[in-house]
Amino acid sequence: MVEMAMNFYFSSIVKFNITNLIYISVDHESCDYVMARRADVNFRCHVFREDDEHVNVTRFDSSGVFARRTNIKPLAAYAILSRGYEVLITDLDIVYLKNPISYIKRLCKESDCDMAIQMDVHEYNSGFLYARPTTPTMAVYNRTLQWCNMIQAGDQECYNRAIKELRNSTAPSIAKLKPDEFPSGKYAFPGQSCPSESVLNEDCLLWDYDGVDGYYSNDRRRYVTYAEPVYSESMTPALLNLFAIGVILNRTAILPKVNGPGGKHIRNSWLIFKSKTYQRGAFDKATGNNYRFGNFLRHRLVPNEVKSSLSAVYCFDTDCYHGDNDTIILASSNPDMELTVQDIKDWFGPEQCSVLRLEVCNKRYNNLDHESILSRDLYNILVYKHLDV
């Protein structure tokens, strides 16, 4: 979550020179992390409440801990509004494409609104809203906090209950932000099951945090990828081979583009992380974070010398799919023509290019023991779609 906080800071705050920023955290460790990496002094991180049961809870759960954690948000906003300040509340999975503050303040001035809120399809989104310290706004927050204390629900449900209740009494004037200008994930990707927010941001080139080790900018790291899309039905052997080759050569795997039935392109994030078995955190841990998304080489922070340092396209069989002039066909020295670890080391060990390109390798090679080459968790995720825990 702290990486998400840093990405929001660099992609949206620093980029548009926004000041008077306060991060609200539930633990001191997260605050210390982001404060140590901030680029200016117009930045504060406040631990609103530290409670062991809230720390490291990042997903919805049946115990209600996640719901209680999200309810810190209206509590913090209420404290700020009570001091007479206006506030723009933004979840960390939001990305600003422009500075929204002047637009929203002008909108509320023209419509005399108390609040301006992004729509999450049919309800108000508590993750992006602007509030003024007016009497109707304070009434909404009072009632929201009451609901938070009465039911085991997240802050968004409590907000919407409160607003609905107050329509006939101290109803606030609310400006609904246009979904084409302030789209939620459900609006931008209708009818699809969204993977984690960090996956979407990164796959859509909206992730700008370079990390402490130069996630994008490291010009010494070497990569391996497929030169053409993988068909979804052959994802398992293709990924097994790609990650195994990466481990053998100490190269970071760049996930391939994916074609579904009929050759229709699918974002690899949808295919790889759309189910609970492919959760981002589990995949990161299983790979040691040693992978990148298919759009990685298009990112502006990747050095040009890396982008331009491409190998020829190699394939392992005499019946290569393309066989173009720039495709180099490799044949194993093994009598049964099976690909081996030694083949991979001999062929590509001396290769100095930044990006090693291969034709899709979607065959099962008997002499390539993926189970011993890959971590147990990664092997189980790719083969059995579950973690061995």
From TrEMBL:
Pfam families the record matches: Nucleotid_trans
Residue intervals of the Nucleotide-diphospho-sugar transferase domain: 18-177
GO CC terms: Golgi apparatus
GO molecular function, one term: glycosyltransferase activity
Annotated PANTHER family: UDP-D-XYLOSE:L-FUCOSE ALPHA-1,3-D-XYLOSYLTRANSFERASE-RELATED (PTHR47032)
Name assigned to this protein: Nucleotide-diphospho-sugar transferase domain-containing protein
Species annotation: Paralvinella palmiformis
